[in-house]
Design goal:
mainly alpha; 9 helices
Length: 174
């Protein structure tokens, strides 16, 4: 099975288990997994962008810039990057929070929702027909994160058994 198809099937299944039935959302989330898994793509606004962003906060300066196209990309990237990190690496986020005082999953959810909302409100989202997709991603971000957490827990890091993971899984069941 080709990697793109496998990714879509895994994401679609996880989203359906979480109550998300929209195939457009599944396609979008699967595309984030595919594109962000390539080299440094998760840390760049575009494939050929020289600037890299190691944190969500570092994207802040780009959200309201003079270049409308770059501001739109930064807004969408904020949502995408927050979903990528909190969805696939929740254990890493929790470990950083406990060891170094980093932000918790709630911060990533809030930033991701903010990025997708800002992207939905941008003029270019309307022009390209993406406003409904970004609005839905903002509204459903917690569900999307939990679905990706299940993919991560089962397929990427199945042998991690920490109290933090167990507590996250119990929290996410409610």
């Amino acid at each position: 099975m080709p990697w793109p198809l496998f990714s879509y099937v895994v994401v679609r299944h996880a989203l359906r288990q979480s109550g998300e039935e929209d195939p457009v959302i599944a396609d979008y989330v699967a595309s984030i997994l595919l594109h962000f898994g390539l080299r440094q793509r998760a840390r760049q606004l575009g494939a050929h962008d020289d600037a890299t962003y190691d944190t969500l906060a570092s994207l802040g300066n780009e959200l309201e810039g003079g270049d409308a196209s770059r501001a739109f990309l930064a807004r969408a990237h904020l949502g995408n990057y927050a979903l990528w990190l909190s969805g696939l690496f929740p254990d890493h986020i929790e470990q950083r929070r406990w060891r170094k005082g980093g932000p918790d999953l709630g911060y990533f959810e809030a930033m991701g929702q903010r990025g997708f909302r800002l992207a939905a409100d941008h003029r270019l989202a309307n022009e390209h027909g993406l406003a409904p997709l970004f609005a839905a991603a903002a509204e459903r971000f917690p569900t999307l994160r939990v679905a990706l957490n299940r993919v991560s827990d089962r397929l990427l890091f199945p042998h991690v058994h920490t109290p933090e993971r167990l507590m996250r899984q119990v929290r996410d069941m409610t």
